Amino acid sequence: MVRPPPRGRNCYAAAVDLRRRVDEAFAATVAGALDGRELPAPLAPRLSPAVRETLVGAAELCGGECPEVLLDYYTRRMPALWVDQMTAPDPAARLLWRPLDPARLPGLAAALDGLAAALPTLARPLSDRPTLASLYAPTLFGGATPLLGALPSERALIDADLAGGADPDAVIDHRLGGNLVHELCHGRPLDLEAPPPPWMLLESAAVFLGALARPAHIFPERNGEAVPGVSLFVLVGQGLARLAGRDAVLGLLTGGDLPPRLAAPLAVAGWQHWLARRCAPFVIDALDAVAWLKLAALAPAVPDGRPLDLAPRLPSLLDHAVRRPWRELPWWSDEPDTADLEMLATGVDALFQVNRLAPTYQTHPDELPGGGFTLDVEACELRAEPRAHGVFAEPARWVLPPPLARRLHQHGARRIRVETTRAQRALAIQALAEQALANRPLAAETVLSWTSSR
């Protein structure tokens, strides 16, 4: 157990000592996994300062002991898997070192172009680092955590593809490109001596950026091409962009922060969330997306002080926010803008997917159960029926931007049933937007239907 001295005396020295011991534990794992071997260039083992400072903060909150669940995950399990992935001889692992040809990787090339357009500072041309491994190496997690999409069970699936005669470049583009771009979206490690913004916000910003770069890497057009199970993070990232501006949200990935009125309560909520769950950040955190977005929309004032000090003293900010009706939040009274319409379109797209074990954890495009979804105006919610074959985030749901809900409510609508297919969803999005923006009476219960397969 890594244990710093109690807070209050020699706090700075205690934090320095804890950082040193965390780094030593990480280095020992890497050395043991390598067992005398050398890592291929340009790899360099490195625990991100953002991760290390999270461990320091968690230790302070937990009475001076760095929680074993975090130590095990970040200084043992993940670096051991990273070394294995980067040095394994199987064909799937060797794809990480295959020279990349943009002409043969249309999905990855399009995503890199999209990333360069959305946030140029994070884009990396293939000419600079011409393999997946070298592109991944300098990213936030690239020196300590295995690349998603190439974990052992996923490599077994890739090995089967390759053994069956699949083109290696097509396999990279299909199964690895989206995961690689996601890591690029997280940016490079930053020198920190304090905890970063909540990981929920960092993940939401990165996934939102990934959706801007290439939507199919989050909302897939074909089975297995997306980063699995992350779409609800887009809800938080896109919602924060509506409330604070896109530049502020994407700036989280390069060392910035949100405006203080948002940053303070969200930072407190991040540590309260940790205290309630006490585990490493995982995809399961996305299930709290609505609560995080409501808290950002509410933006309650918190006392002055460090989030680490305030978190255990204040009632749960997320619980407080999630209980508040959308109609009581300032966002409800705003006039609709283009960001609200973009959120509506994203929400409808998000309903047309399912998370499955097929045989690894994947996100697939999918039709709606029962042939449609429901818009609950007062709850500001889009919701589909649960899918029997789904393994996470069922039933599918999204937030209807409150200004659009208010307009529909003012004109009489309470519940809208939308019957449509994936092929026709753009028509449904357009009709919903027109109904929200039009100045005409609406029935309390309405059915809109586009079910043609053409």
* Rg: 23 Å
According to DSSP, the number of beta strands is 7
* Beginning-to-end CA distance, first to last residue: 61 Å
Q: What low-confidence regions span 5 or more consecutive residues with pLDDT below 50? A: 1-7
User: Helical residue percent?
Assistant: 40-55%
Tell me the strand percentage band.
5-15%
Mean pLDDT: 94
Q: Largest beta sheet, briefly?
A: 5 strands, mixed
Structure description:
With 454 residues, the protein is α+β, with helices and mostly antiparallel strands. Among the domains are: 1-87, no CATH class; 91-185, no CATH class; 332-450, no CATH class. Helix content is 49%, strand content 7%. Helix 17 runs antiparallel to helix 19 (425-437). Mean pLDDT is 94; it is low at 1-7.
Brief account:
By secondary structure, this protein is an alpha+beta fold. It contains 19 helices and seven strands.
From the structure above, extract its key features.
two-stranded antiparallel sheet; single chain; alpha+beta; 7 strands; 49% helix; 19 helices; globular; 454 residues; 5-stranded mixed β-sheet
Protein topology:
Blueprint: H1 11-34, H2 49-61, H3 68-87, H4 91-94, H5 106-118, H6 132-136, H7 152-163, H8 168-185, H9 199-213, H10 231-244, H11 246-251, H12 260-277, H13 289-298, H14 307-310, H15 317-322, H16 330-333, H17 338-351, E1 353-357, E2 361-365, E3 372-376, E4 381-384, E5 397-399, H18 402-410, E6 415-420, H19 425-437, E7 445-450
Helix pairs in contact: 1-2, 1-3, 5-8, 5-9, 8-9, 9-10, 10-13, 10-17, 17-19, 18-19
